[in-house]
Predict the 3D structure of the following.
Amino acid sequence: ILEDYLLVEDAPLLEEMAEEDEELDLYNEMTFGLDRDYTEEDSTKPLVPLEMSPELVEVVAEETEAREELGPGVAEELGELQEEGGMELEVEQIGSELEEEEEELGTEDQEEDQEPNDLGDPAVMRAVQSKPTLESQDSAVLDSRIGACWAEFGEEDMLAMDPLVWGSCPGSIPPHHALEDKAILQVLERPPPSTNMALDFLSSPVQRGYRGSPRLKRPNLRLMSPKSFPQHFLRQTAGYASLAPFRPTSSTIGSPPRPFTMHFGPMSPSSDSAVFFSPSASGQLNLSAPSHMTQLHPQHQRILTQRQQQGGQAQSISPKKSWSPKVDPYAGLMTSKEKDWVIKVEMIQLQSENMDDDYYYQMYYHRLEHKQAEEELLGGRNKQEPPKLVTPFIQKVEMYNSVVRIAGSLGQVAVSTCYSPRRAIDAVHHALVEEATGSHRLRALHKIEKLFLQLLEVEEMQRKMPLASEEQQPGCQEQKSQEVECIYQALKIRACSTEEEAEDEFLQLLCVQKGKKLMARLLPHLTQEQAEKILLTIAHHLPFLMKKDALDESLPLLYSPLNQVVGGMTFSKVIKVLQEMTRPLPESPELPLAMALKNQFGISLLYSLLSHGEGLLSSDTPLEPCSGDFETWTDTVFLVARELSQVPKALLVEPLFLPSNLLSLFCRYLDKQTVHHLEVKME
Amino acid sequence: MNYMPGTASLIQDIDKKHLVLLRDGRTLIGYLRSIDQFANLVLHQTVERIHVGKKYGDIPRGIFVVRGENVVLLGEIDLEKESDTPLQQVSIEEILEEQRVEQQTKQESEKLKVQALKERGLSVPRADTLDEY
């Protein structure tokens, strides 16, 4: 018999169905006072009590006219979509379009019913003044709710399934009803669902919900005959559950279960319907609640589902004993998409490894698993897989590239920042850091770090050089020298006046302890010329450096390498450096020399210079002095001696190293008494 | 029926009337319209209900957006049983007055207590000045 029923692919059939639907909807509206989508027609039709069938017919005619606009549109769409494969898809599209039209009709009326909230009135929870529904008028309707049947599934408002209601107007059932039902019956041809009805029931919306048009919030059942009803009316609440089928779904797409039977004539209901029309639920009602033996008139089913759709997405569902006539116009504020999203987030949260985050969830499943394991052991059954929530697998981003750089591009690539806003922020930060950061000190520190890294590379190269083969040596050397040169250039050593000292980059580096360390380690790698230049600069700015070093006291770091440098200097060079130390300062009467005596590094450096000079003089090596060198030398020695004698012993700092030939130096130029005096001092 | 066993979600509570207890002690009653992952709530047609003794008064508040962390608990209101209460509803003015009187008596007794403790050399920090955690 079932095979006789046509697949709804014929346009005329669909048209008929559409017409039928309209009639039915009208009927439903009159019966149940559905107002949302049909408010436009309200004015045209009076509310017809059920008993007045003739009027009903009249109104049906009226409605049909009113709906004519929809009709042709439907027909067109049907025609268009005929070619497309997949009946269900077609139907959906049509349905959604129809729905849109409906919504257009209905939207303007949404606000009609709400009165402005009068704050003066304490009773805020007003009844929404919808049209007086039939239910409120007809106690029979009130009594015969099958609401509780759906309660298990948290269903939306139940329709009245009062036999009286339908019994009173048998004539209203259009003749084409049968066809429609045939189409509906197609559902029953689907392969039987798996054992766990409720779960599969949920699983079907998975495919349904996500395959269909996302706009399809309220699937218009009128044309979606192949779909199963339960899918639809559970879609609202279970739509979002589609994200989490309680059972990893095995049902294929497009194969909705047959959770209940379309009671049609002699057909016997399947046991599945027990799920929906549970006798237990009926206990709540004093109605002849549909038990598993109850056969629902197919129209009743449709009404049910239509009610579902029109009731909006998220109408308040609760097992109500008495029917609340108030339709909640604010329902559905939160769309199913939004709900899906929240559930998705919640499920992602469940994925954490952290036990603290989802303790209850973890415990629940642990216990479940334990229990099943026990059962398994006891019962010896096959291993049961505990139904696990299928949480959406979110691949955690392993690496977060805060700043995306593509080789060859200029700067930061415009990575999509809508989903990773952090990138944009980080990129800006990156850019800022690379620029002058405004603070000298920060810049200096940054530079030191950079140069240090380079220096470490140089030292690495140095270390590796002996290991390299003979041919590679010069190459390595070359490379190393280049690197060193790089660093040296980066230091930006240049002549600068006293005023500019604070701004000078090189000097700033030297003010930082790490900068001094850097220099100390770098000096051995530099050429003599480069090193001497550094020494000269240091000597020139010695007072500044000493002042800045008051806190750190890290200048002595430089002593050892500088000492080495001094040891390689010519006499003229020594003189030059000494001249720096003896030149008068603009803002202070004190000579740098004098200041140096009070500073460990200063005095050590001084002694080193003197010692070397003396050493050079007393040695046989040809000095090649410049003109005036010797005079300067003598002057310097005298000056040193003078300062030494003048400086109070308390302030005189012990040098890092006291060269042995200093005294003999002094002896040559100074009288014994002075020398002795100095000797005492210097100890 | 919870489609996500082992978890709790407010999704099922959408569009239902709820009673929400806030951390500051307020009681709100409204239709839960929207939530998010932090359990921030959007309450519609909200009423703040003040309870004093056996009396209560409702202050209509309109729409509330409640930050999730401020919620102590919330529960669905059974619309049928809602009116089935031994409590007596009074006007706003009356309940506010009652509340004020209640606060006053509480303060006075508190003051006496603190005074008494002080005389005995004990000092109990006031609960409302303590850190919340």
Q: What stands out?
A: The first strand of chain B starts at residue 17 and ends at 22.
